[in-house]
Specification:
2 domains; single chain; five-stranded mixed beta sheet; Nucleotidyltransferase, domain 5; 252 residues; alpha/beta
């Protein structure tokens, strides 16, 4: 077996279905290392690394966080857990910021570094929209079922429905499987188009950056943005970027 990789701090993003690991280095973008599914796979991966600290952002069930806390104690490692809070250059529109998902908050932190208007679309298990102006004021957002959840909702209604295993080459489904896939994809694209249209009047006429992240961001084609004068950045690890900034700036 080869030598283990050595990192001072590992960043963990744990979502509803998948987890990601990145290496933290001060004042640098995090180095993405691994993605996987399930706690046992995550534990096995971490056991192959040499590190001092773990920084965690999780929207998964509390049981997984408890398992990670226990693992860190057994390995004599420090585990710090990011939670949504006031400050860090963000002015929340939520009356109670603690009810705002930590993953969404961390994407705001990542986008805040550019000091521009930001439209953040995270196409994951859920698809979310967050809008922030160039002063760091969070203006609100949307939450909707993601691409796979939409398909699953249809499947639960009928045992006869099936989902296409790959993207159809046609634009109109000539089978039920393709029709389900294409319909859910159209709904995702419609969410994005409406998000851009509704966000535009809320932002001053200054530079606006659209950040795309999440596991299904490849389902959003470039032509979706053609009629909008925005810079579009595909940042698949935006939550980890925000977690890195939080870890760097957090009070000790």
């Amino acid at each position: 077996m080869g030598a283990k990789s050595v990192f001072a701090t590992l960043l963990l993003e744990v979502g509803n279905t998948a987890w990601k690991v990145a290496a933290y280095r001060p004042h640098q973008q995090p180095e993405f290392l691994q993605r996987g599914y399930g706690f046992e796979a995550l534990k096995a991966y971490l056991q192959q690394q040499v590190f001092a600290d773990l920084a965690l952002a999780s929207v998964a069930a509390s049981e997984l966080t408890d398992n990670l806390r226990q693992f860190a104690q057994q390995q004599n490692k420090k585990l710090v857990i990011a939670e949504t809070q006031a400050g860090f250059g963000i002015a929340h529109c939520y009356a109670n910021p603690s009810t705002y998902g930590v993953d969404r908050w961390l994407t705001l932190l990542a986008a805040r570094a550019a000091q521009t208007n930001a439209i953040i679309i995270d196409a994951g298990t859920a698809v979310t929209l967050d809008v922030m102006d160039d002063q760091g004021r969070h203006l609100g957002g949307w939450i909707s079922p993601g691409f796979k959840l939409m398909q699953e909702a249809l499947l639960q209604r009928s045992s006869k429905l099936r989902v296409a295993t790959q993207a159809p080459s046609e634009t109109l489904g000539t089978s039920t499987e393709n029709a389900v896939y294409l319909g859910c994809q159209a709904a995702l694209r419609g969410f994005v188009e409406q998000a851009l249209q509704q966000s535009q009047p809320k932002l001053a006429d200054t530079r606006t950056v659209v950040y795309l992240t999440g596991g299904d961001l490849d389902l959003i084609p470039e032509e979706t943005f053609e009629r909008f004068v925005y810079q579009v950045q595909r940042r698949p690890h935006l939550v980890l970027e925000g977690l890195s900034r939080w870890f760097e700036q957090r009070p000790e």
